[in-house]
Specification:
Elements (H helix, E strand, L loop, with lengths): L13 E4 L7 E7 L2 E7 L2 H14 L5 H4 L2 H12 L6 H15 L14 H13 L4 H20 L29 H10 L6 H10 L3 H5 L3 H4 L6 E4 L2 E5 L2 E5 L8 E4 L5 H10 L9
Helix pairs in contact: 3-4, 3-6, 4-6
């Protein structure tokens, strides 16, 4: 006799694995007193089959009942913390609470939200006085939430990807460290003979984040013969694991002119690494 092991969507059908047939999953629903049951080879297939049974019986599916707001609450509190570091998850939750849950779009069905609705909401956030960078971050968080909804098989596409913020984007800025010349020189002198001198000097002279410097590749620094270093990735920690991914923001991807005084330091670093590149000095 079959026994329920996992319950899904109380009141609108269940999925369970048969106790007498391990590996055989059952989707079961009762509509107007009539029970319908189908067998599947996996839990995922059974859950999809359960949605089919609901549609056939005129019962709303889990995806149809999920609003954007309810999904954002669940995603930011339960799912995102398992995929990103705690500080990032906390930032996601704050953006969800302050930017998205306060907007009318939060009451829309998750599967029905359109790109133009997202763009209208982004424009409303800009009109409310938020900085463009803050709204761009809110857009990125919403896109991550929709990516999670795709993994959960609640939606089939991410409507955020085609959205754009109105108006002209802010001009990329070159970050500068606010250090006095005296302090910068002391730091430079302290690492003069250190193998990582080039990394420190790049941060001092060019304002790169440590995560950006540590992710530099030979091909990113080779263009220094043309006077720039390309920043296209950064080191980050996700779920306790260090990895290389995209920079912190969209504007962090950039080409930065290299000061002439930094070139001998970089040449020395390349020479130590067995790649002298004498031609670009």
């Amino acid at each position: 006799m079959a026994r329920r092991r996992r319950r899904a969507e109380p009141g609108a059908g269940t999925c369970y694995e048969r106790a007498d047939r391990p590996g055989t999953w059952v989707a079961e629903i009762t509509v107007e007193g009539k029970r319908e049951r189908r067998h599947y080879a996996s839990r995922a297939a059974a859950r999809a089959g359960l949605d089919d049974l609901r549609r056939a019986g005129g019962v709303t599916t889990r995806a149809q009942r999920e609003t954007l707001g309810s999904w954002l609450r669940r995603w930011s509190s339960e799912i995102a913390p398992t995929r990103v570091e705690p500080k990032t998850a906390q930032t996601y939750a704050t953006i969800v609470r302050n930017q998205w849950l306060t907007q009318p779009i939060a009451d829309r069905p998750l599967i029905a939200v359109q790109t133009d609705e997202i763009e209208a909401t982004l424009e409303a956030l800009l009109r409310s006085g938020l900085k463009r960078s803050t709204v761009e971050h809110a857009r990125a968080v919403l896109s991550a939430a929709y990516a999670g909804a795709i993994r959960a098989k609640l939606v089939s596409a991410n409507p955020v990807l085609a959205s754009e913020l109105p108006g002209r984007p802010d001009a990329p800025r070159v970050r500068q460290l606010r250090l006095s010349e005296d302090v910068a020189q002391r730091i430079s002198d302290a690492v003069a003979d250190h193998p990582l001198r080039a990394f420190v000097e790049i941060m001092l002279h060019m304002g790169f984040r440590p995560a950006e410097v540590l992710a530099l590749r030979w091909e990113d620094v080779n263009p220094i013969k043309d006077g720039v270093i390309h920043v296209g990735q950064a080191v980050k920690q996700v779920g306790g694991t260090w990895t290389v991914g995209t920079p912190k923001t969209a504007h962090s991807t950039r080409d930065v002119p290299t000061p002439p005084e930094l070139r001998p330091v970089l040449f020395q670093h390349f020479h130590r690494a067995g790649n002298p590149m004498a031609g670009w000095l």
